[in-house]
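agent> fetching stored inputs for the S-adenosylmethionine docking request
agent> found them:
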Amino acid sequence: MHPNPVNDPNLSEDDPVLSLASRAGQTPNALAWENFWRDAPPEEHTVFWDAPQERTGAVHLPLLAPYFGGGRPVVDVGCGNGSVTRFLAGHYGRVIGVDVSAEAVSRARDAASGDEGAGTALAFRQLDATDIEAVGGLRTELAGDADVYVRGVLHQCSPGDRPRLAASVAALVGERGRVFVVEPAAEGGAALTALSQRAEGPPSALAAVLAHGIRPMEMPDESLPALFGTAGLDVLARGAVPLALTVVGPDGESAEVASNWLVAGRNG
Ligand SMILES: C[S@@+](CC[C@H](N)C(=O)[O-])C[C@H]1O[C@@H](n2cnc3c(N)ncnc32)[C@H](O)[C@@H]1O
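agent> prediction call returned; pasting tokens
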């Protein structure tokens, strides 16, 4: 386990963890994620948000399907261990999962190597989605507009990184692509706080996240459409959908966090 509270506002710039991150050419956020994924258990459905696809991708598919398609590739931004990316690859011709963590990408590749038909249609790439230059390289490689899927990434980014990530998404989407994004609602923060403050301690999957200094950060509900509006995208559809977790809630059922989704694009 790497004690690595890099999102902790109490840490100063000369903290050894931060300077290690900067010497390695990584942002503190990137280092926290790398360490999180290095320490994460390998079994599927053990990471806090890695719920089975019946409760994640399959719930999102009917929301995004009217907007995705037209032969465009799908880019899963912040794909983690690739569970949803692999699900999307069963529905779209070309799917690319990108994540800031090389370890996450390596795990996603390993998991996908056993999938039927995996190979040509599905790829994973280490990429910092706040790095607009790197994202420009991906766009050039894709040679056209893409549809973009984002689940639970923006609220984990620092407030300063969120507009950069939204601008990257807008660059990938181009003129005809669409983005589907789902992020915990402000109301969902209460459920996460309740889980993290249980008398018996947080569930182990949540404890693993917190131990790496990764905290769900506050993101006001209206900032989600505002981020994409500022990036030049119109909101075409939006709503609420629970974000499924792998832990059990106080009622003994699989826990969920209230979340908001939206679809955005240009020329709506
Ligand atoms: C909460 S996890 C969600 C993973 C995945 N979207 C899912 O739903 O299973 C957030 C992911 O975003 C990745 N991430 C965080 N900041 C990123 C960035 N700037 N660029 C690319 N990926 C990033 C993390 O490494 C992590 O895998």
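agent> quick read of the result: The pocket of S-adenosylmethionine is lined by residues 29, 33, 49-50, 78-80, 83-84, 99-101, 104, 128-130, 151-153, 156-157 (CB under 6 Å).
agent> awaiting further instructions
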